[in-house]
Amino acid sequence: MSNINEIAKLAGVSRATVSRVINSKGYVKEETRQKVQKVVDDLDYTPNQNAIYLKNGETKTIGLVSPDFSDILSHFLSSFATIAKKYGYQVTLLLTDYHQESEIEAFQKLKQKQIDGIFQIVRSNEWEVIEKYSKYGPIVTWQRVTSPKIESVFMDHYEGFKLGLDHLYEKGHREIVPFFGIEKSLNTVARYKAWQDFCQEKGVALQAEKSRYNLHTSTEGRELARWWEAEKEKPTALLFPTDNVAVGFLAEARERGISVPKDVAVVGFDNSSIAELFNLTTIDYPMHLQAENAFFKLYNQLKHKNLPLHPLSFKLITRGTT
Amino acid sequence: MSNINEIAKLAGVSRATVSRVINSKGYVKEETRQKVQKVVDDLDYTPNQNAIYLKNGETKTIGLVSPDFSDILSHFLSSFATIAKKYGYQVTLLLTDYHQESEIEAFQKLKQKQIDGIFQIVRSNEWEVIEKYSKYGPIVTWQRVTSPKIESVFMDHYEGFKLGLDHLYEKGHREIVPFFGIEKSLNTVARYKAWQDFCQEKGVALQAEKSRYNLHTSTEGRELARWWEAEKEKPTALLFPTDNVAVGFLAEARERGISVPKDVAVVGFDNSSIAELFNLTTIDYPMHLQAENAFFKLYNQLKHKNLPLHPLSFKLITRGTT
DNA sequence: TTGTATGCGTTATCAG
DNA sequence: CTGATAACGCATACAA
Fold first, then answer.
1. CA at A39, C1' at D15: how many angstroms apart?
2. Which of A206, A207, B125, B294 could form a disulfide with A199 if both were Cys (CB 3.0 to 4.6 A apart)?
3. pLDDT tens-digit readout, B58-83
4. The pTM is what?
5. How close, in Å, is residue A45 to chain B by CA atoms?
6. Structural fold of domain A4-47
7. How large is the greatest C-alpha to C-alpha distance in chain A, in angstroms?
8. How far apart are CA B108 and CA A46, in angstroms?
């Protein structure tokens, strides 16, 4: 279509001047600036990004590698993309569908100069395979990893879950049942371990048969309220995998006349905005800051800067449901 | 890093020859081919895609524009990406989060030569705004649209839903309750209209209060089984928004000793693979073919070809649940 | 304040 | 079968 040459010719200036106008860089007399701008507007000209990428040797784009559309991804992405944009970067989603080859393809984009860095939610290939790509650009992951080449923004959910359990114990509860999200995820494993250790430490019985996995929606939370009501030996406190599930429970409980926390105490997880609306005691999980840190780590490597990172820790937010 | 020049120097040949080896194009003596290949392997060389894109004037990439991660998107994407790959195209996901400006940014990529064409699930901007971008590359959409510039693979769900309702009527059912997916979606509106028209045509009562919206998961299907069981005036037939929801109903029904289709007839929607496993009567919704058509339409415009399109129509698949 | 010249890394045409 | 050379569209150092 139209290129910088054409604009230059029509405006009666050199390509360099057109470039200066487009990028508002360097000195341009206001008069010529307007002249050039008019031609740009008239021809509806937009620079060819591939030429710019090639010239600059960077794409100002970060690849976000994930095996699928998860709930985490969607939250993470929005925080990550926002902070990235603030620093002039775009984010492109690279879905692998749990295929190792697709993941390799994503990393190849780093090598092929299509993206400047990668943030990886969950890996499919071995770390040794992934590590090799770090020489083509920075790689940061959400998972726990001990590699000098790959940085991480991992948070140990063991700590967070423990916070909730201890809080309920202090409130006098001895019949605590926790629920979990994705069964095989490392975070669920860590949370489960916290439960195990808690039971052993406090000498209370771990009633595994009452717990459940793969809970995500508020609809499922509602269902749990019906389950609790029907249960003969009712637990006195429940610890939910997300605020979302917890508020489903609260909504159904309210409709059924179950009194929280009198009949049963409820603790959520995430401290999402809905938690406050339901006056829900929850564990603050600073995913937003985690996403910012992830970007900062990439940016620091890319631009040899030293932007400070947010300190990350789980926090108990005590509200009215305990 | 290493570029084609370096390879050429080390292999003692010209850039042109290296290019021929890399792309297996043109004549190269086997001996020199091997010599070059060795250097390529040794240096772990990969061509810079931006240079290739610039040179070729195309990226062999289609942008898939969607406002969010929907269930539809995930299914559509996998079919679409598969057929695209077969023709040498990649697919990149462009999420707009329902923001008009984000959608514009996605279309800008067409203008900036970052993608060759666009498939759009659901628009946020007016068609007049979107149309303007069609001069930079082909645009195909999943929605209904009458524009000479934008092609569509729209299917009217009215037809499909009608098929299910008529089938149940023929089987003698007069107490039919349909359920729906996303409340405001155009497809839901079309399905609802089919229900209205059906009731009027057959002279049966439309019991809107028994129906429900926003049903997606099999867990929600299970819940509907419990609802049905508790209901005093039980409908004799149910029409579900997706097979997924329907099989949840079937699973729960089985556990509760509800007999299908004796106690209640069940019809799904989509004819997904799970439908066959549950011997579920359903409406075949050829999304896979729709995705292929979407790509073919883009490809035909891009390459001035004339690949034939699949004929698209809803089909009733009668199985054991009616 | 503006223009000239050069290079980013690749492919394709044309000669040899 | 191979190499020199000219694009692709842009940004920038340097000169003017």
1. 27
2. A206
3. 999 999 999 988 777 888 999 999 99
4. 0.89
5. 9
6. 434 Repressor (Amino-terminal Domain) (1.10.260)
7. 87
8. 9
